[in-house]
Write the structure tokens for this entry.
Amino acid sequence: MSSTALPSTALDYDAFLQSHVRSQPHAVMRYVQPTETLWLKRAGSSHGAWRYRLLGAVARGLRMPVLAPVPNPGGHAAIATEVSRLRDLAARGLRVPEVLAACDDGFLMRHLGAPGEDTPSLGNEMEQAATRGSAAVLALWKQGLQSITKVHKAGTCLSQAFARNLVRCPDGVIGYIDFEDDPAAALPLPLCHARDALCFAHSTAWILQAAAALPTARAQWQAWAQTLSPDAQQTLSDSVARMAWAARLPDNQKLGRDAQRIRMAWELLRP
């Protein structure tokens, strides 16, 4: 990912896309000008199908359909999916980057933040807030839950509801990024909603633990989970029950950071 300054002139977005999409040195680049910041995303290489067959076998073996893989073929197909999803989410009133121009090889979108400034992910903001105490972290975390609820009430789902894919815009509203796959095209919507919940829990529980906010968050999580549809609640409950083995993971760094994050997610999710 890289950035390039642009002259202060009005852009023909379609012409700009055609001029840069095949020649830019990186798959994703930021282009900055005084009045707006743009992102151009170019199609990458295609992905092999074998990895999805393997993940599907794992999900069946564990009897956890929430882990069923969502195909992301990469290449031109991933670009078409992301453009379609961004436009659909925007039409539902959700905060996503505006697609300004698109072609088979890539697309141009407008930055969610202020011109020339980074827009922090919710995960980064939660980490930074830890120095201000557990209340500050919990406030951001709860806003993340509310942003996922907004997506579900709009009749759709996210692609990967990790805290890194939720960004806080300058006005405080949470926006959504990264839509190269479409879970609802492969899985029932209640399963997608439970998947969103698990992704968010996995990506935030370790931050809550570091901020001594996990016990309070657990009660808030249980209340939030009750707002899911009955089918999504059942899927989530079944998935959590099959994660009980995580309670036996050692509460130290011996098995590495990934194991610790799984354990912290279990501590958040457990009944």
Remarks:
- DSSP finds nine helices and seven strands in the chain.
- Residues 122-269 form one domain.
